[in-house]
């Protein structure tokens, strides 16, 4: 009966081919192959030789090794399109393309399945991560007050771990033994992706083609695509390198590589030029509970919906543009221009409310830890125990940061005009210049003498007193 098992195995290969992906046989006992009889050969001939060749190819090791199935972070652009056949050629593997919707826009998601399969992928998985992105990644950074190098609101830094986390989940779902990304060897994103992979599944293999292949630029990639019959995306090539999600839009490259050059006005995409913004200010009220925004102008919204609303409001007033030369994790400096309208409004609102709800010592400690928090996020250490511990601290000390802040938006500027909180530490009866029962101004004399005692003693020593 050994010949029957051989035929069944061949039929299994044919069925898997109809599904688009090879099906691995797990927990199965493979019987020793029996000598082929004339009847067996005839049966195999009826199946055809294509399936046999297909099975032989699947067993074949790639040029650089052998992997079973790889989940690739996929955008549909030229780079990720050529990575698909490159993975198959070099690792003899199936490729599952993964795309995360983090608010980059509906146009970025159109036609992806056709592109992926045309490139040789066996499957495309798309997941809507917008709510998770805002709730579980953006909001903790907002609550912590995390800003990298004084200005950068961490738009790309926060998005990479949520995407990488989803890739690990997809790898488990499809039975992949590896993940891959299209990050270059010069940037921060390679670190952010891979540290997340390490933290969530250290057994996964990680492939980074840009650190391995001979492709040096766009022309090389186009040539490789033609050689492997991969349709070259016919999208217009932007002169800028951009990254867009629900939090921000970044611009790098071209004339921005010289810090002496002013950005061109037509470069910006989600915010109007402040000079061309409305001549009348707009007021917006942000409701906050325990350091996190919950409403806009009295309307409660989900995290992603709230941010989208503020992006539209802030964008029409030219809010949230910054031009920054930052220090990359890999050591070099890079220049980027960022548009973060909704995020800029939210950071202002939370900080203003904290002036009512946090005392001086707590605020100073929080601000000092916020620097380290931002550094960890920028460096891709989202799942580092230190960041998680700091997050617990931030959650605790902002538990009373609840209230409402009204902001005036006018030609690129955000100004707080009103702030209220049921947990406000501000007491008008104490702070008033009028005399009060709680604060006796005469007590200040003794306080000053004690507080200034070290300075007084040092001055006496210097004068020989």
Automatic annotation (TrEMBL):
Alphabetized CDD domains for the sequence: ASS
Origin superkingdom: Eukaryota
Pfam families given in the database record: Arginosuc_syn_C, Arginosuc_synth
Q: One biological-process term from Gene Ontology?
A: argininosuccinate metabolic process
Q: Where is the Arginosuccinate synthase C-terminal domain?
A: 240-457
Q: In which pathway does it act?
A: Amino-acid biosynthesis; L-arginine biosynthesis; L-arginine from L-ornithine and carbamoyl phosphate: step 2/3
**Arginosuccinate synthase-like N-terminal domain spans which residues?**
69-231
Documented EC number(s): 6.3.4.5
Molecular function as annotated in GO: argininosuccinate synthase activity; ATP binding
InterPro entries, alphabetized: Arginosuc_syn_C, Arginosuc_syn_N, Arginosuc_synth, Arginosuc_synth_CS, Arginosuc_synth_type_1_subfam, AS_cat/multimer_dom_body, Rossmann-like_a/b/a_fold
> Does this UniProt record's set of keywords contain Signal?
yes
Q: Which keywords accompany this UniProt record? A: Amino-acid biosynthesis, Arginine biosynthesis, ATP-binding, Ligase, Nucleotide-binding, Signal
How does this polypeptide assemble, per the annotation? Homotetramer.
What protein name is recorded for this chain?
argininosuccinate synthase
């Amino acid at each position: 009966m050994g010949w029957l098992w051989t035929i069944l195995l061949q039929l299994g290969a044919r069925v898997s081919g109809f599904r688009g992906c090879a099906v691995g046989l797990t927990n199965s006992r493979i019987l020793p192959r029996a000598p082929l009889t004339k009847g067996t050969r005839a049966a195999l001939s009826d199946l055809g030789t294509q399936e046999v060749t297909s099975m032989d190819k699947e067993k074949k090791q790639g040029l650089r090794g052998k992997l079973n199935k790889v989940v690739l972070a996929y955008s549909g652009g030229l780079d990720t399109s050529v990575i698909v056949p490159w993975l198959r050629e070099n690792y003899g593997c199936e490729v599952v393309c993964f795309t995360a919707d983090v608010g980059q826009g509906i146009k970025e998601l159109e036609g992806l399945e056709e592109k992926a399969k045309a490139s040789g992928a066996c499957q495309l998985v798309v997941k809507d991560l917008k709510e998770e992105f805002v709730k579980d990644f953006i909001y903790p950074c907002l609550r912590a007050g995390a800003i990298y190098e004084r200005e950068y609101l961490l738009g790309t830094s926060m998005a990479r771990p949520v995407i990488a986390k989803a890739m690990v989940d997809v790898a488990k779902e499809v039975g992949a033994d590896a993940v891959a990304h299209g990050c270059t060897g010069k940037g921060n994103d390679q670190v952010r992706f891979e540290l997340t992979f390490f933290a969530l599944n250290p057994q996964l293999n990680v492939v980074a083609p840009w650190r391995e292949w001979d492709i040096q630029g766009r022309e090389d990639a186009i040539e490789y695509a033609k050689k492997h019959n991969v349709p070259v995306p016919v999208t217009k090539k932007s002169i800028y390198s951009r990254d867009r999600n629900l939090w921000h839009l970044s611009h790098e490259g071209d004339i921005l590589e010289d810090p002496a050059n002013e950005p061109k006005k037509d470069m910006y995409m989600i915010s109007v030029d402040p000079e061309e913004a409305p001549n009348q200010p707009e007021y917006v009220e942000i409701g906050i509970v325990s350091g996190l925004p919950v409403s806009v102008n009295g309307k409660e919204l989900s995290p992603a919906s709230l941010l989208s609303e503020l992006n539209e409001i802030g964008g029409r007033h030219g809010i949230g543009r910054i031009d920054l030369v930052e220090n990359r994790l890999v050591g070099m400096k890079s220049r980027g221009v960022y548009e973060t309208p909704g995020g800029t409004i939210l950071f202002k609102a939370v900080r203003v409310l904290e002036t009512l709800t946090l005392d001086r010592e707590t605020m100073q400690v929080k601000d000092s830890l916020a620097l380290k928090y931002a550094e960890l996020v920028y460096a891709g250490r989202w799942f580092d125990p230190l960041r998680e511990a700091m997050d617990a601290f931030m959650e605790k000390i902002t538990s009373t940061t609840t209230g409402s802040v009204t902001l005036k938006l006018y030609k690129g500027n955000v100004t707080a005009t009103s702030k209220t909180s049921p947990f406000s530490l501000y007491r008008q009866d104490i702070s008033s210049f009028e005399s009060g029962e709680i604060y006796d101004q005469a007590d200040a004399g003794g306080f000053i003498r004690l507080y200034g005692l070290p300075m007084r003693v040092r001055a006496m020593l210097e004068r020989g007193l």
